[in-house]
Amino acid sequence: TILPCLESLDHNQTLPPNPILRAAMKVFSVLVSSALLSFGCCQAADPDYVYGRDPKKDAEYDIATGMAGIQQAAKDPKLLAQLFQDMQDPELMAEAKKMMESPEWKKKMKDITKDKSFKSNMEKTAKMMEDPDEAAKMQAKYEHMMKVGNEANREDARNTMSEAMQAMNDPKTMAQAAQMMKDPSFQDQMAKMAKDPAFKKYVSAMQEMMQDPATKLKMEQMASAMNTHLEL
């Protein structure tokens, strides 16, 4: 039952796949070239902070972590590609919207926009983006990073799936996997994972791998063996 589902999905899809995400790419280009990222406006999230004890501090932690993530994505093609993949998740976007509507976020943004360095950098950014050539270069830069990042993430996913298939050749590992799959809590966990945008890259990797007849045959044999273990 797994193979037809995997084959039915579009494994050639690349980001950004629609006008909304292309517009988001333009906005991202402005952000990463502005003081919001170049200016050290946000304190790093405390690695020792225990999340969940204080809602206000949780919000501050989310802001610091989120801003740090965007800063890092501006430099790392793989993280940039994953960021735009995450933007397709309604639940994550709803959480982001909720964070930006919080008093803590609004206060942080108000403090940032009052900073003289921020204002100066924003003016420079606005002037730069008025130049069509500069704006196009910036957008092209991040679109290229997206392309590189998507391919790198696909390669990582292919390697992970190959390692998983290799591990499943061990009868003991196969038996342990089958045992876990009988556990209702594990089934629930897998169902939630399947909805995660990050999980789609593994589905896509498996689809690509199954284009090879030999790999597809191995997958079918593994599926048959797994079904045998599940029936025990």
Task: Write up this protein.
The protein is flat. Helices cover 77% and strands 0% of the residues. The chain has 232 residues and is an all-alpha fold. It has 13 helices and no strands. α10 packs across α13.
How far the N terminus sits from the C terminus, by CA atoms, comes to 18 Å
Succession of helices and strands: HHHHHHHHHHHHH
Counting DSSP H or I runs of 4 or more residues, the number of helices is 13
Radius of gyration: 22 Å
* Percent helix range: over 70%
Unreliable runs: 1-21, 35-41
Mean pLDDT equals 75
Q: Work out the strand percent.
A: under 5%
- Secondary structure class reads mainly alpha
Number of extended strands: 0
The biggest sheet, with number of strands, parallel, antiparallel or mixed sense and barrel status, is: none
Shape: flat
Secondary-structure map:
Elements: H1 2-8, H2 19-32, H3 35-38, H4 55-73, H5 77-86, H6 90-100, H7 103-114, H8 116-129, H9 132-167, H10 171-181, H11 184-194, H12 200-209, H13 213-231
Helix pairs in contact: 2-9, 4-5, 5-9, 9-12, 10-13
